[in-house]
Amino acid sequence: MKQQGRALRYALRVATAVFSAVLLSLLVPSSQCVWLVLTVFLISQTTPGTPLRQAISYFLVIAFALVLAALLDWFGHPLLIVGIICTLVIISAYIAFINRPLANKTLYHLMLFAIVLLIAGLTENNFIIISEQIIGVAWGVLIGIFFNHFFFPISLSKAFGEGVVPVLKALQLFAIDFQKKLEQGEKKINLAIVRTQIEKTLLSQQSGYPEWVFESGFNPGLRSSWRYFLIKLERVSEICFSLNYLASLEINFSALYLPLATALQKNAELMDILICYFENKLLKPTDENYTHDLDTLESVLQQVVPQHIEAIDLAEEYVVITAIVRDVRDMRGLLLQLVVGLA
Amino acid sequence: MIRISLSARYLLYLILVALVLLTIYSRLRSAEACWLLWSGLLLSLIIQDNTFSERLLTLVVTFLASLVCVLLATSASNFPFVLAPLLFFTTLACAYLAQRYPEYSFGLLIINLFAILGGSFSASTNGLAMRLILMSEGACVALLLQFIFWPGFKKSENIALTKLALLNLQYLSRDIFDCFLQRDYSDNQYMYERRLHEQKIKFMQTVVRLKKIDVHQVTKLNRLFEILLDCAQLRGRVSDFSIFQVCEHELQMINAAINRLLSIPLVNDVEPLLEAINRLEENYQQVLLVTAKEPLPFILFIASLRAFSQAIGGLKI
């Protein structure tokens, strides 16, 4: 539901910006109209991290494409111009293709440049009207920024919370599923389904994962704490992937099942505290002891594997068991850091 | 090498589309000729989908929706108070669907773009008819030339995506080892972690697409990904990063060996990697065990590297 709500808010913002741009274009010269509406539409596509910075870079890309189109118009034969534009579009599309999946803003700008050049180069464009067109683009940027900031504006903290909750829930589900399988004493532990869930939520667009926090130029007041949170959260997810691999190895570590299950349950509880904080802005008070279960786990581990460190790699089984316990311990450490950070 | 073979067909397709469109364009005398190029070139940029029929369907649907949008928007272009609500609802639908189904976002962007262009450039009835005909011609060129991809579509997509996933893994491994080997890691942690994040996301995006074509291959690639992430845990388990300088040479050897193993064409010769691991293990026994504050993470790291060398042995393209 939240995802649908977020998508609808975004769509309403873009649509209203375009609606207003069409009406406002009545007030400007006809050569500006198309660029005003088009720029508003493109500016509305910016991510929440650095909307102003992105709007300025979009302006520069569009203005550059317009100037280039006017230059081509001034220099050459119409068919030659079209040939050059087609070549530039092919080059841009090819570069974007070989770098797929597109995660890089530079590549997005390249595609934007190609599309704008394709439109500018094939419509009326010369040095007489270029200043008017660039003014149209500038108006478009201002209107786009206005709508981004004042119409269904994105609250950064809300967007951040909404973005991390699905990941936290997927990680919690992983911990709970692993715990249940240990409690049931399953010999071959398969966590593929819950692993896929983590993968899905990490893929930014679908779950709204706030990777815009990493954008250079993001709010200096917020970035260090939010980046800290995301980095720790990603490390927890890495541990889950690592655990999925280790648990799938057919190694008998049944002696550790119960203490491991208890530790995973506590990890899931810590994740619940984080989820509760982001959903309700409430930090659940807790009297739980989050070290005792790990001490128990370590003592059981010492009974199972050789106590001397040099002897651990004598058998693959020992290494895998030690790695699983270490992963669970690391996960606890990271989660405690996150909870303490919120407090 | 990998990049050329991965996209040779697509480059050929783009060049052919442009050449055919240019040939038709050069014979046209209509003011609406630009719609031929817009339609043909923009539709040729749509490259997703897992089967040939799915791709054709996406192209046809995108084209038909664009055609309807241009028809309506051009008809309303002289009436701003009709055009504004029309573009409002078109944009609303496209933006909403793009958020819900990101895999079709580019197609939806094209539909939206055509609606805006149609509304921005008015035309007479004849002009509108010509515009729609030229759009259809452009779309036909983009659609018919898609048959370049037809022979062995699934297989070539499978190979291309597997190579891409391996390339992503190569970059991921490079970025993981950068965390160990670059001395400014602890000062610029955000920068290095962001790089890791980007590579992980790129790999997962590639694998999600590949999963629809070849689940078996995805299982193997995911295993390599998980083992690499298991290796990456070392950066969080070591408190004193200067310890990596003690085994810098061995880590560089391992990094180079993994890079070679993940590069195309795939060489399943794990000997250099095993040799590098053995060198690290010797270093561990002689130096790290005594000097490192936490020697245990190195044992786990070495075990993960050995698991990686076993897992990559079974990979084929």
If you had to describe this structure to a student in words, what would you say it looks like?
The complex is a heterodimer of chains A (343) and B (317). Chain A is mainly α and 343 residues long. Chain A has 2 domains: 2-150, no CATH class; 156-342, Methane Monooxygenase Hydroxylase, Chain G, domain 1 (Up-down Bundle), CATH 1.20.58. Helices cover 75% and strands 0% of the residues of chain A. Chain A is built from 13 helices and no strands. Chain A has helices at 2-24, 30-43, 51-75, 78-98, 105-122, 130-150, 156-183, 192-202, 204-207, 220-248, 257-280, 292-304, 316-342. The relative contact order of chain A is 0.10. Chain B is an all-alpha fold and 317 residues long. Chain B has 2 domains: 2-149, no CATH class; 153-313. Helix content of chain B is 78%, strand content 0%. Chain B contains 14 helices and no strands. In chain B, helix 2 (34-43) packs parallel to helix 6 (125-144). The two termini of chain B are 15 Å apart. Chains A and B meet through helix 1, helix 2, helix 4, helix 5 and helix 9 of A and helix 1, helix 2, helix 4, helix 5 and helix 8 of B.
Outline the fold blueprint.
The complex is a heterodimer of chains A (343) and B (317).
Chain A: H1 2-24, H2 30-43, H3 51-75, H4 78-98, H5 105-122, H6 130-150, H7 156-183, H8 192-202, H9 204-207, H10 220-248, H11 257-280, H12 292-304, H13 316-342
Helix pairs in contact in A: 1-2, 1-6, 2-6, 3-5, 3-6, 4-5, 7-8, 7-10, 7-11, 10-13, 11-12, 11-13, 12-13
Chain B: H1 2-26, H2 34-43, H3 52-75, H4 80-100, H5 105-120, H6 125-144, H7 153-181, H8 189-211, H9 215-232, H10 234-237, H11 243-246, H12 248-262, H13 271-291, H14 296-313
Helix pairs in contact in B: 1-2, 1-7, 2-6, 3-5, 3-6, 4-5, 7-8, 7-9, 7-12, 8-9, 9-14, 12-13, 13-14
